[in-house]
Amino acid sequence: MRTLRITAAQRNITISCIGTDTMLTGDREQLKELLENLLQNAIRYNRDGGWVRVKVSSENSHAILTVSDSGIGIPKEQQSRVFERFYRVDKSRSRETGGTGLGLSIVKHIAEIHSADIKLESEEGKGTAITVRF
């Protein structure tokens, strides 16, 4: 989160983290990459002056990570495809912001390696929340 605060600050986006300390067994570098990809998307597809929230919790011995934002959201008809390699919701905006369409496919791959489930909730114009349950 610290490394991406500068990028977020350039667009007046506030990043916060809430939750509890939670233990998780896994590959530290891969888990870091998973979180970085979720945060980069939350910043990239947000609006100036928006917010990004990271929530860490546990439930029934499962670690849960949720990254939510106040961004542009994802249309319902495209939500099932966002974890595909090279898929971009808004191709013109992705070119402007530098997106490759790989971030969420990497997130999905790392989640699968760690036997985690991913849940996406999004509403166009109101933001997105991605929850990874390990």
Features of this protein?
single chain; 134 residues; five-stranded mixed β-sheet; 28% strand
Task: Give the topology, please.
Layout: H1 2-9, E1 14-19, H2 28-44, E2 51-59, E3 62-69, H3 91-97, H4 103-113, E4 117-123, E5 127-133
Parallel strand pairs: 1-2
Antiparallel strand pairs: 2-3, 3-5, 4-5
Characterization of the model:
It is a single chain. The chain has about 130 residues and is of the alpha+beta class. Helix content is about 30%, strand content about 30%. The chain contains 4 helices and 5 strands, in the order H-E-H-E-E-H-H-E-E. A 5-stranded mixed beta sheet has the order 1-2-3-5-4, with helices on one face. Helix 2 (about 30-45) packs antiparallel against helix 4. The two termini are about 20 Å apart.
Give the H and E element order. HEHEEHHEE
Radius of gyration: 14 Å
Count of helical stretches: 4
Bin the helical content: 25-40%
Average pLDDT figure: 89
Describe the structure concisely for a colleague.
The chain has 134 residues and is of the alpha+beta class.
